[in-house]
Write a structure and sequence with these properties.
single chain; about 350 residues; Elongation Factor Tu (Ef-tu), domain 3; 6-stranded antiparallel beta sheet; 5-stranded antiparallel beta sheet; 5 helices; elongated
């Protein structure tokens, strides 16, 4: 009987090997790799069109005949900022007259000051009556006041002359030109519409959930300009505190200021925002999915089998999976299939 024991051991070992890889089932669950289901996302493409960061109606601060316009539609305002010039002949004549008046008053002040000094010495010697000195000092004071008023008037005339040169912010572009040389311009008349295209804004309308996803999206944001084949960096510039009751959306602006080959309004910009998949699908690596009889299964750490629907590939080599019993955050172990 002892001679048959080695033969029985060999037969038993052969039966075990024929039954399949039972090591996966007997292996402790803690030793299998555990995966956490991540929420599947879909890319929502939002389309906007560029616009100027700001617009400005350039108006005339004086009335007069326009003598020169330096920029046309589409031009960029230069460093000196001069857009147009109004006729300033009469103001220049008034300035010349003011200069002559100042010279006259300075001469009178010098004369009265000299006379007053002379009479002070005579009064001190009791050679003249103090009343005449009082009149001279009063005349001197009035002459000084007239001189100061004339100097102030010159400042007013210089300011009026300066305002006959219509200036615009340097670097802005002319959107609309509303004045021509020889045209009479009234006080407060718009002469041009300008835009600041040094920085472009892309207005978008988002619902509150999309807005929160935008704020938490990786920075810097990326936008695509399909008509130019450009991918540019952008940032959230501002959000309107208002709310559109009809669309139930919030108005936000993305800012573009680098890498632009053209700086115009109306350039199409696409921004892709990752939003949760409305189907509730999750992402898991292929190692977590087992396939049996053309059906797909997941295994919980407790060993429960969950049948799922395989929707297709996901980002980073993952699989998109859907099932009423599978939610984001649930944990599953590797299927063990080799």
């Amino acid at each position: 009987m002892a001679a048959f024991r080695p033969l029985l051991v060999i037969i038993a070992l052969a039966c075990c090997l024929a039954a399949g890889p039972v090591w996966a089932a007997d292996k402790p669950k803690g030793q299998r790799q555990v995966f956490t289901a991540q929420p599947a996302q879909r890319m929502l493409t939002l389309t906007g069109f560029t616009r100027a960061r700001a617009k400005l109606n350039l108006v005339s601060e004086a009335a007069g005949r326009c003598t020169e316009v330096l920029y046309d539609v589409g031009d960029t305002i230069g460093a000196n900022g001069i857009f147009a010039v109004l006729d300033s002949t009469f103001i220049k004549l008034e300035l010349e007259s003011n200069q002559v008046e100042q010279k006259r008053l300075k001469s009178r002040v010098a004369y009265l000051d000299k006379e007053a000094s002379r009479y002070r010495r005579l009064v001190n010697k009791k050679s003249e009556a103090p009343s005449k000195l009082d009149r001279l000092e009063e005349d001197l004071a009035q002459a000084n006041l007239q001189l100061e008023a004339t100097k102030t008037q010159r400042k007013v005339l210089a300011e009026r002359l300066d305002r006959r040169t219509i200036k615009a912010p340097p670097g802005w572009m002319v959107i609309k030109r509303q004045v021509e040389p020889g045209q009479w311009v009234n006080l407060g008349t718009p002469v041009a519409l300008l835009g600041d295209y040094r920085t472009l804004l892309v207005p978008l309308a988002l619902d509150p959930r999309q807005y929160q996803l935008l704020k938490s999206a990786p920075k810097p944001l990326k936008v695509f300009m399909p008509d130019h084949g450009l991918t540019l960096e952008a940032r959230l510039e501002r959000q309107s505190p208002g709310f559109d009751p009809r669309t139930r959306k919030i108005a936000v602006d993305l800012e573009l200021d680098k890498g632009l080959s053209e700086r115009w309004g109306g350039l199409r910009v696409e921004f892709q925002l990752a939003v949760p998949d409305p189907s509730g699908a999750v992402l898991l690596p292929p190692a977590a999915v087992a396939e049996r009889y053309q059906e797909h299964w997941l295994t919980t750490p407790e060993g429960k089998q969950v049948r799922v629907v395989l929707l297709g590939p996901g980002p980073g080599g993952t699989l998109r999976i859907s099932s009423p019993q599978v939610k984001a955050g649930m944990r599953f172990i590797a299927s063990g299939v080799r």
